[in-house]
Amino acid sequence: MTPTEKLATELMLKFGDSVLTQQQTADEVATFWVAKTHILPVLAYLKKESPEPFPLLYDLFALDERSRSDHKTYPSKDFTVVYHLLSFKRNQFIRLKIALKGEYPSAQTLTHLWPSASWYEREVYDMFGIRFEGHPHLQRILMPLTWQGHPLRKEHPARATEMGPFKLWDEKVDTEQDALQFKPEQWGLQRHSDDADFMFLNIGPQHPGTHGVLRIILQLDGEDIIDAVPDIGFHHRGAEKMGERQSWHTYIPYTDRIDYLGGVMNNLAYLLAVEKLAGIEVPDRVKVIRVMMCEFFRIASHLVWYGTFAQDLGQLSPVFYMFTDREKIFDIVEAITGGRMHPNWFRIGGVAQDLPNGWDKMVAEFIAYFPKRLKEYHNMVMRNSIFKARTVGIGIYTLEEAIEWGVTGPGLRACGLEWDMRKKQPYSGYENFEFDIPIAQNGDCYDRAVVREQEMIQSLRIIEQCLKHMPEGPYKSDNSHATPPLKKNTMQDIETLINHFLNVSWGPVIPKGEAMSCIEATKGWNSYYMVSDGNTSPYRSRIRTPSFPHMQMLPYISKGYTVADLLSILGSMDYVLADIDR
Amino acid sequence: MSETLNYWLVIVGILFVLLNIAAFLIWVERRMLALWQDRLGPNRAGPFGLLIILADTLKLFFKEDWIPPFADRHVFVIAPAVIVISVLLSFAIIPFAPAIQIVDLNIGLLFFLGMSSLGVYSIVLGGWASNNKYSLLGALRGASQMISYEVFMGLSLMGVVMLSGSFSLRTIVEAQKDYWFVLLQPVGFVIFFIAGIAETHRLPFDIPEAESELVAGFHSEYSGMKFGMFFIGEYLGITLISSITVALFFGGWLGPAFLPPLAWFAIKTAGFILFFILLRASLPRPRYDQLMEYGWKILLPLTLLNLLVTGGIILFLNQP
């Protein structure tokens, strides 16, 4: 009995098939349609009562089904809300869907089951206009409060040219500015306590400590944080909406810019989902090349985090040394891909080119060079007593809290859980590599730093194994869906010829279905949930990014600390705004 | 007549040199930081990028003289002047060389401590008058930091006063003919220097301006030459603390005869200024409450102990 069948039996026994209907998907994640009225009991059962529970709300999003070819077939729906849960015990995802009818339907809120559902539900409301009954603060989250319409609905224009010219007259400036004014009462915050008046400090969206256009409003008593309200969306570019009008191939460069420090790692998350949909098996050489490039970007991203974290705490120099090292990584990336931060280099079914001559020499040089630098940084930053005083015991959360709030990646491993997607659910051939999962126990800012620091050493180990065991073979799958297909097949193989013609004239056509990938990205788990309607562009592309739930947790973990500690907490969180807002 | 002229020449000369040093330090700091951080720093304008000083100064002068509409105008204007004036006045008592000193007050050290206390007003008033929350937080941090560190800044110097038996800096320097006071007062020196860093609010004690937390702290709203005054005030402050340290603990102008006394003074002072910059390149910033705890719980008892031991030894040695 497969895990999916086991899960299906368990749920059917508990709830019966009037409530649940199983659905087959390309990614083989156990998927069930749940009757709208029963979703809360089912979720509560999965979270609390099931013998092997699903404690992590991994993702929550919606689809506008109204233009989809099969939206009339069972279950008939206009909108779908999708829940992804993860069970650590089973090492398994589950996907639950509810079908909603009507133009502006509503569903029940999950916020009392999972606090992390709050932002996800606000996002669904913002993007689709679906209301969640009982949500404590259902308000737009990514779009401006003054926005008209809900962008991910199919009738909402995707291009500025479809919307008429943009005009900003004086009254509109006033309205927009008024909407940005923070009104504590709206958030249920008090202006006074019994013995003090609180100060509301607006940090950002332009502030040297926020690493991007993030706005945080602090409720302060002196310098102590009573509460914090993060305001996100200033970096929102509608990456999910863009997916719906780009071809499967031309969407790749947009993914580069989601976690903009992760480079090709974003390509990988997207392509794993697409390749599952298209049924493409990539050659070994491609897998190893992809792993190597991803690990280079992991190191590059961690170096940026390392340097800026130290800088947030007032240490000015490390960031310069670390950017110099990052530059060495970019030299290699440039030699291999021609690009630097956003190489847009992976392709459906392979990579853009084969590795250039002499790549191995550059990689070997870096492997020889980097460890002693890391040692130096360890002495400079991690062993510095002021650095320790600023980070040890600050921003603590326990493993239970981390799971409750949807924390993934190094932030989760700093609480003592040895869970790395590269080991637990290996993708792209990670099962063939030897590496350790660094963990730490206390879940404070310092431990999150320890985990990331150790990860760089492990990434280097993986790169070394890639260098030693790089397989020979093609750099692209000979599957006819590979984009663009192998040149030598285009004139020989009729399937490839047809697909090549389609690719060039329309863009690749990916078979109907839906699939999700999940990778261990630089900041946590990154997923692309791609829905194909058998067309040249995705019907819906959902991007689950790690920084989004991490930022949601900020008020919870920063209460009671000071303004200076907030910077430690933000720094140790390692987010980028593009990853939060998409 | 010629004596009065000479007197005025010394004053004008010192003022001229000091202001130039403060401006020159902009370049020194940026180049030294760059050196320690594996980068180039400003190296384009003029030889070794030296003309950056001119460019920076001109830029500051020609910036719009902006006072935010919500600020308290008069206080806002006075605040930056306070720090420059109080630091410049402190220089009056410094013996740069046997013949170069504006005034040898018999309460020289007390005058210096008094003037450096006045510097606090600059930060408090500037932050308060800006009417900005970040400035206010910076000003409050600055005020409490400087007031607490002044307590044992003064106390840490008393060891030197006991040894030389005088508050006059000239007498103190001359008392170091045989050996520098740093040998007799190592603890006093370390504590005074730490307090000096806190007094000039330089990294690691730049908590009033902590750019990653408070944007620019108490001077967030300042621009143009008003900001320039804070800027110059900071560099003058570094120079002042360095020269006082040299005069009190490192024998002032004293040194082997192959160099003139003034050169010895300048070399020693430059060393400390570079140390200030090195600190900025290497250390992170403690949290505000940690700084206060460090001051009151560690440095203050240590200072008192130092005072007690020094006094005890002097009494023991001097008993008939």
TrEMBL record, chain A:
Residues of the NADH-quinone oxidoreductase subunit D domain: 312-582
Alphabetical list of PROSITE patterns matching this protein: COMPLEX1_49K
Gene Ontology process terms (BP): respiratory electron transport chain
UniProt xrefs under Gene3D superfamilies: Cytochrome-c3 Hydrogenase, chain B, NADH:ubiquinone oxidoreductase, 30kDa subunit
Catalytic activity: a quinone + NADH + 5 H(+)(in) = a quinol + NAD(+) + 4 H(+)(out)
Superkingdom of source: Bacteria
Domain NADH:ubiquinone oxidoreductase 30kDa subunit: 32-161
Main location: membrane
Subcellular location: Cell inner membrane
Membrane topology: Peripheral membrane protein
Keywords: Cell membrane, Membrane, Multifunctional enzyme, NAD, Oxidoreductase, Quinone, Translocase, Transport, Ubiquinone
Entry GO MF terms: NAD binding; NADH dehydrogenase (quinone) (non-electrogenic) activity; NADH dehydrogenase (ubiquinone) activity; quinone binding
Single GO cellular component term: plasma membrane
Alphabetized InterPro entries for the sequence: NADH_DH_suC, NADH_DH_suCD, NADH_Q_OxRdtase_suD, NADH_quin_OxRdtase_su_C/D-like, NADH_UbQ_OxRdtase_30kDa_su, NADH_UbQ_OxRdtase_49kDa_CS, NDH1_su_D/H, NiFe-Hase_large
Enzyme class: oxidoreductase
Record EC number: 1.6.5.11
Record-stated family: In the C-terminal section; belongs to the complex I 49 kDa subunit family.
Summary of the function given for this chain in its UniProt record: NDH-1 shuttles electrons from NADH, via FMN and iron-sulfur (Fe-S) centers, to quinones in the respiratory chain. The immediate electron acceptor for the enzyme in this species is believed to be ubiquinone. Couples the redox reaction to proton translocation (for every two electrons transferred, four hydrogen ions are translocated across the cytoplasmic membrane), and thus conserves the redox energy in a proton gradient.
PANTHER family for this protein: NADH-QUINONE OXIDOREDUCTASE SUBUNIT C_D, NADH-UBIQUINONE OXIDOREDUCTASE 49 KDA SUBUNIT
Protein name, entry field: NADH-quinone oxidoreductase subunit C/D
TrEMBL record, chain B:
Keyword terms: Cell membrane, Membrane, NAD, Quinone, Translocase, Transmembrane, Transmembrane helix, Ubiquinone
Localization per record: Cell membrane; Membrane
One annotated Gene Ontology cellular component of this protein: plasma membrane
Catalyzed reaction equations: a quinone + NADH + 5 H(+)(in) = a quinol + NAD(+) + 4 H(+)(out)
Ranges annotated as spanning the membrane: 7-28, 44-62, 74-97, 109-130, 151-173, 179-198, 235-256, 262-283, 295-317
One Pfam family matching this protein: NADHdh
Lipid bilayer topology: Multi-pass membrane protein
GO biological process terms on file: aerobic respiration
Molecular function terms from GO: NADH dehydrogenase activity; oxidoreductase activity, acting on NAD(P)H, quinone or similar compound as acceptor; quinone binding
InterPro entries per the UniProt record, alphabetical: NADH_UbQ_OxRdtase_su1/FPO (IPR001694), NADH_UbQ_OxRdtase_su1_CS (IPR018086)
Enzyme Commission designation: 7.1.1.-
Subcellular location, principal: membrane
Quaternary structure and partners: NDH-1 is composed of 14 different subunits. Subunits NuoA, H, J, K, L, M, N constitute the membrane sector of the complex.
Family, similarity comment: Belongs to the complex I subunit 1 family.
Role played: NDH-1 shuttles electrons from NADH, via FMN and iron-sulfur (Fe-S) centers, to quinones in the respiratory chain. The immediate electron acceptor for the enzyme in this species is believed to be ubiquinone. Couples the redox reaction to proton translocation (for every two electrons transferred, four hydrogen ions are translocated across the cytoplasmic membrane), and thus conserves the redox energy in a proton gradient. This subunit may bind ubiquinone.
PANTHER family named in the record: NADH DEHYDROGENASE SUBUNIT 1, NADH-UBIQUINONE OXIDOREDUCTASE CHAIN 1
HAMAP family: NDH1_NuoH
Protein's name according to its UniProt entry: NADH-quinone oxidoreductase subunit H
Native organism taxonomy: Bacteria, Pseudomonadati, Bacteroidota, Sphingobacteriia, Sphingobacteriales
Gene that this polypeptide is encoded by: nuoH
